[in-house]
Structures are given as structure tokens and as C-alpha cells.
Amino acid sequence: MGSSTFLLVLFFPFLLLTLSHAATFDIVNRCPYTVWAAAIPGGGRQLDKNQTWTLTINPGNTSARFWPRTNCSFDSSGHGHCQTGDCGGLLACQADGSPPETIAEYATFVNKDFFDISVVDGFNVPMEIGPDSGSCPGGRPSRCSADLVELCPKELKVPGGCNSPCNVFKTNEYCCNDGTCTPNEYFNFFRSNCPDAYSGPNDDQESTFTCPQGTNYTVVFCP
């Protein structure tokens, strides 16, 4: 998960309020190419340029994640494959996607929503998540708008994306499995190009955004 907020959702469900409000998410593709949007919960949908997919996260669902998939091909039954962000070969995702993928994360508890953009699993498409106008006074989007596929260090670069150093090197130095790692050159690459995004250790306070529970959101590919 992208931050300690999401770890709390995962490991301490007794903190969650069961009377959470429904939240609506408009997922918009502003890229000049087709993106196959994915959501848990929600499934997935092909979005051509300027198309929108509207999802409602019902009361009782206390977390969600959204991500783009690229260079996909599906048959009439919704089975196929994506170059990045693939979720088990399904158009309508039932599980998380495969890195590299840019992710928007959302959680709600104790009358407050928490959201962020995460590049912990790498990057494939510029992305933004933020509150709809007027629904979160003083709120602003979390955004990663740089093209990290083009800027990606060669050792992290894969077709269609920029991998995370953990996925490439699989060592504690880059994966922080025991919580002792410190920022490194790859963390600094993601952080400097996408300062809003959750990219590694000690990002929680700077990269997690909040709004009142019941806020509606827009998720944008290529903001």
C-alpha cells in the first residue's frame, strides 16, 4: 500500500467506521492514446481519448485503488493481456495489477478520506486523483504528471513503463522489508520528478492527502 493510512486499513479494521458514505469517482482518460482503466473494487473498462468511466464506491467499502493499463488486447469474453498493469488477463479486474503501474489509492475512516498517487510499484501513465470542485474546501489533487517512461533510468526501464527498484533488485535496500532502508538514488528519481507521489520511505506526511468523508473525486490519466 502507498502509506501508513492504508496499512491501518489493512491491519486495524476495528478503527474503521461501518457507516462510511458512498463516494463517486469519475475516471477520465486525457491521454492521446487508449488506456484500459482498472479499479478494485469496480473491475475495468477501455477508455479511448476523452472518455469517462464513473464508479460509485458504496458505503461499507473503506478502500479502493485505480490504475491505468496500456497496450491491451481482449477478446469478446474479456480475456487477454496488457503490457503494463495487467490483472490476470481480465478486462474486469478482480485482483491488483502487475508492475510497473501508477496507482491512485483511496481509503476512508473516522469521518475522513485519505488519497494519494503511488509510484511504489513503478510508473506507466501520468496520473492524478483529487476532489471534485467545491466538495473539499482547501483540497487539491495529488498528481504525477511527468513522463517517467521517457525519463526512466535504463536499469529500471521496461517496455511501456518504469519499474520500481524493489521489483528489479529485490533487496532490502530498495524494498524496505524490515523498515530500515533510507532514500536512495532511485527513490530520489521518482521523488524529484513526482513530488506529490508516494515513492518510498518517510513519504506519508507529504504524500497523503485528506478530505471530509463523502467527498467525490476525479481520477485523470495524463493530467
In short:
With 223 residues, the protein is an alpha+beta fold. The protein is built from 6 helices and 14 strands. Disulfide bonds join 31-222, 72-82, 87-93, 144-194, 152-162, 166-175, 176-181.
Describe the overall structure.
The protein contains six helices and 14 strands. The protein is of the alpha+beta class and 223 residues long. It has one domain (4-221): Thaumatin (Sandwich), CATH 2.60.110.10. Strands 2, 3, 5, 6, 7, 8 and 13 form a seven-stranded antiparallel β-sheet that branches. β2 (35-40) and β3 form a beta hairpin. The chain is globular, with a radius of gyration of 17 Å. Pfam families: Thaumatin. Disulfide bonds join 31-222, 72-82, 87-93, 144-194, 152-162, 166-175, 176-181. Belongs to the thaumatin family. Residues 1-22 form the signal peptide. Keywords: Disulfide bond, Signal.
State the helical fraction.
10-25%
Gross morphology is globular
Q: CATH H-level name... which superfamily?
A: Thaumatin
* Domain tally: 1
Order of helices and strands: HEEEEEEEEEEHEEHHHHEE
List keywords for this structure.
alpha+beta; five-stranded mixed β-sheet; 14 strands; seven-stranded antiparallel β-sheet; Thaumatin; 6 helices
